[in-house]
Specification:
The protein is mainly alpha-helical. It has 2 helices and 2 strands.
Length: 62
């Protein structure tokens, strides 16, 4: 039986919103963020979201 699970829609939405926010916060002229503390939180949350989105689910042994 094929038990493939698709990508989680809420995690995709969170990743897109965080990615856009990080992009908007970054100043490409001076290579800095508007608020560095919030940028760290955004980046860590973005990376955790990507991890949970693409990690391989463990197969159940019957």
């Amino acid at each position: 039986m094929n038990n493939k699970k698709g990508l989680s829609f809420p995690l995709i939405i969170i990743a897109v919103v965080l990615g856009v926010t990080i992009y908007k916060q970054f100043d490409f002229k001076s290579f800095t963020f508007e608020s560095p503390a919030m940028a760290v939180i955004y980046i860590l949350t973005f990376l955790m979201t990507l991890y949970f989105l693409f990690k391989n689910p463990k197969e159940k042994q019957e």
